[in-house]
Amino acid sequence: MAPTPLPSPPPHAVSVDVEDWYQLRRGGETPISARFERSVEAVLAALAARAVRATFFVLGRVAEDAPHVVHRIADAGHEIQSHGHAHRPNHDLTEVQFREDVTRAKHLIEDVTGSEVYAYRAPLFTIDEQNLWALDVLAETGHRYDSSIFPVKTSRYGVAGYPPGPRIVETRSGRRLVEAPVASFDWLGRRWPVGGGGYVRLWPYSFLRKAWRRIEREGRPGILYFHNYEYDPGQMWAHRREFPLGVRLQQGLGRRGVPKKVNRLLAEFRFGPMRQVLAPLLEEVT
Description:
By secondary structure, the protein is α/β, with parallel strands linked by helices. It has helices at residues 21-26, 34-49, 60-65, 67-75, 95-113, 133-140, 198-202, 205-217, 234-238, 245-252, 258-268, 274-277, 279-285; strands spanning 12-18, 55-58, 79-82, 119-120, 145-146, 167-170, 176-179, 184-187, 190-193, 223-227, 271-272.
């Protein structure tokens, strides 16, 4: 009797940036909010309902303040990697401060999970032409893949014309690591971001489906990301009096539709954790 063939790796990866929106917005020593854990549980339930494993990029501060939540993610079988420690944009950090931030986060998360942390996603995608030295620091500190370079130039971040698919990059000092940008596709002479954040909030699902089908036809992995707090759309309304209208519009517009859109993508396309999707490339830099 012939052996049962192993399932092929999923063509796309799904990732979650794990942070407490309220804590970050309030700043300082604000404790983890009561809604944070519930939002993570909602994400875990959505993934379990579709039998999908994901990569969770966890803040070091979350590992420090809510280690039981990190344990819960790990116990559900998901990959856990680093989102840095304090969610400070890397454009605001010196090389020394960046090294301290990523090293602290890596050690905190490893202490909680007992597993190696070897990947990173920058807060607000703040690795670009200004600070490509950050890739050297990541490689020096034991990170083998990164998902921080946004392949579309925006007013806040991104690199115009950056290759849209995962690839091995050589740093300025000759080190190598895998760079895995979030999903985008070229259409009508422009590059369109479709990997998550405000773009998933604002694009209609028909446009997202079109984009992901195009990415699939091109034969390259798409990287989807979202935040745990986007599975708690009522949070913004609950704190509406605490934040100015600009913040509420920028981060709240279309927020209620995110869970439904993400869930449809997870059901319609095959997703898995980034380490699985990037495995062939990771073998070359290990």
